[in-house]
Amino acid sequence: MSSATRIRRLGAATAAAIAAAAGGTAIILNNPSLAGSDRGPALDVVRRKINDVNVVVPSRAVQESALISAGSANPLDILVIGGGATGSGAALDAVTRGLRVGLVEREDFSSGTSSRSTKLIHGGVRYLEKAVFNLDYGQLRLVFHALEERKQMIDNAPHLCHALPCMTPCFDWFEVVYFWMGLKMYDLVAGRRLLHLSRYYSTQESTELFPTLAKMGKDRNLKGTVVYYDGQMNDSRVNVGLAVTAALAGAAVLNHAEVVSLIKDESSQRVIGARIRNNISGKEFDTYAKVVVNAAGPFCDSVRKLADKNVQPMICPSSGVHIVLPDYYSPEGMGLIVPKTKDGRVVFMLPWLGRTIAGTTDSDTIITLLPEPHEDEIEFILDAISDYLNIKVRRTDVLSAWSGIRPLATDPSAKNTESISRDHVVCEEYPGLVTITGGKWTTYRSMAEDAVNAAIKSGKLSPTNECITQNLRLIGGDGWEPSSFTVLAQQYVRMKRTYGGKVVPGVMDTTAAKHLSHAYGILAERVAAIAQDEGLGKRLAHGYPFLEAEVAYCARNEYCESAVDFIARRSRLAFLDTDAAQRALPRIIEILTAEHGWDNSMTGNTNRSGVLAS
Q1: 73, 85, 448, 478 - which has most CB atoms within 10 Å?
Q2: Are 219 and 387 in contact (CB under 8 A)?
Q3: Distance between CA atoms of 102 and 455, rounded to whole angstroms?
Q4: What totals of helices (H) and strands (E) does the chain contain, helices first?
Q5: GO annotations under biological process (predicted)?
Q6: Residue closest to 414 by CA, chosen among 346, 316, 320, 340
């Protein structure tokens, strides 16, 4: 396709986007899930329950007891299988509609794909490009929808999500015009959900903003950059926040609990519950529900096979590998997008939690519980970013690497996973079992809403109100401000226990205070109080802000049941630096042992650190 043709198509698509954006408000208001005058009072009730200063998260024993008590004569309305973003979101959606809800997760909340993302909350710039040049209205609708959800997600978890500028390098003037027009269209499609306007920066301005950006690439001089905005998140902490918020709202959520079989009605063969095994105690029990929602991500086919062993697979698994590099690779507060690699893929390089994350690949894979990155994929990412940087890109700089499996819904006409739309699928192939799959992190909330709507229809359930998660802030988010960390820095100290056993005071420095504030929101003061009052103010690893107090807090309030639960999902140390995570493990296990009363056999089982490879 010629350059002139591409620009003409982009201009025509921009005009179409203007027309669509003009009617966007009407589309949103016509959504039946947003109708209903009872959303206001219901939302207020849930908010009060979640934000009660004296609220205590139900214990694991209480949650298990609630699942066991859901017998055939007193079933739950909905039992959700899978504690990733969509499953936890579905549990929160359903319980805030006044339904009786349970959720079980084989490993930990966010232990799978939901913790292994690019950490972006985005509408999909490349999906917009495909929509334009393939004249694909379905892809365009997906972008509209994702941009709507992007802003909602940032608003609902402001301590864990924020806007992030991303820089697109241009090495000829056509690229400047092309990317400027394309990203202006992205702004236009966002409409009232726009984060910030995109803009062009000269070569000098660009290198001032991004000092490691190369001025020469592939024998071409940098002509400038176009910077646009998407969102960024701490993915697993958002996921844990969803699960804990659902628990506070009344859902019985249980991690490390595996569905071993489905229970069917003998006469109708409808799915009416599940046999569940507590993977910590080994105990098995039955939980009955009017509808079972299968939100098992890449493993949803395994759940479907429990209902029908001959069912055809829905999942086309795609592997996404990311690596973490030192902070000097990218400036704080500015990302870089490589719009086209040698094989046509997009690679991001983003600042994240004081380090730089780079990725991702997109290739066919097999489904496994602990996917591992391959060396050629790591080298591919390093090679892709090296063309755009003025520093030496070294394999020895890789602090950690991980692979996640995207649960893409199979399209028989697609030749490869990169061309498959990330839209989601909701279906009920077997009576009583609703499956939700596909989609992406950004749209988890609406995916959950669609799954709950399908479950309500399947089970003829009677919710007390419509969906209210559009404007429901997660635990820790209500009342949080970017300046909230100053309260911690001014009013708390970190009491640290020395190797000799003496407790000495330490400053609650700005780095630690900001970390706690962003990780726990308004509940950061509870963590700071533990650090101060219980002598758990010491850092877990040199060079990282994670405190011993966080281990105790997460064990008490976030269903943290193993050392890996903490280093990989409650904190992100295992994703940031595998060596530092290994060094921190003994102390983490020591604190968890005290919190959970473990014996020697349990401490041996908790050191399952096969999370990442470096």
Answers
A1: 85
A2: no
A3: 13
A4: 21, 22
A5: glycerol-3-phosphate metabolic process
A6: 316
Beta strands 161-170 and 335-338 are: parallel
Query: If DSSP codes are grouped into helix, strand and coil, which group holds residue 444?
Result: helix
Calculate the alpha carbon distances from 609 to 20, 543, 562, 573, 574 in Å.
Answer: 49, 20, 10, 12, 8
Question: How far apart, in whole angstroms, are the C-alpha atoms of residue 461 and residue 419?
Answer: 37
β-partners of residue 228 are 166
Distance between CA atoms of 87 and 78, rounded to whole angstroms?
11
Q: In 54-159, which residue ranges form alpha helices assigned H by DSSP?
A: 60-68, 85-95, 125-133, 137-156
Residue 461 carries which DSSP code?
-
Q: Is 261 exposed, middle or buried (0-12, 13-18, 19+ CB in 10 A)?
A: middle
Phi and psi at 365, nearest 5°, equal -150, 175
Sequence-ordered list of residues with C-beta below 8 angstroms from that of 359, at least 6 positions apart, any chain: 118, 320, 321, 322, 323, 347, 348, 381
Beta-ladder partners of 351 = 356
The H or E element that residue 161 is part of is strand 161-170
Instruction: Give the angle 157-163-168 at the CA atoms, nearest 5°.
Output: 150
Integer Cα distance of 285 and 268 in angstroms:
22
**β-bridge mates for residue 216, sequence order:** 221
Identify whether the C-beta of residue 328 lies closer than 8 Å to the C-beta of residue 355.
no
- Looking at residue 347, its amino acid is V
Please tell me whether residue 214 adopts helix, strand or coil conformation: coil
Query: What would the pLDDT profile of 137-172 be if each residue is shown by its tens digit?
Result: 777 888 989 999 999 999 999 999 999 999 999 999
Instruction: Quote the percentage of the chain above a pLDDT of 70.
Output: 89
Beta strands 271-278 and 257-264: pairing type?
Answer: antiparallel
Q: Is 609 exposed, middle or buried (0-12, 13-18, 19+ CB in 10 A)?
A: middle
CB atoms within 10 A of CB 145: 17
Determine what percent of the chain falls in helix, strand and coil, rounding each to the nearest 5: 45, 20, 35
425 token code pair = 């699928």
Confidence of residue 23 (pLDDT cuts 50, 70, 90): very low
DSSP 536: B
**Type and span of the H or E element at 445:** helix 444-459
Whether a cis peptide bond, with omega within 30° of 0, leads into 360 is yes
Using 50, 70 and 90 to split pLDDT, how confident is the model at 284? very high
- Residue 198 and residue 482 in contact, taking contact as beta carbons nearer than 8 Å: no
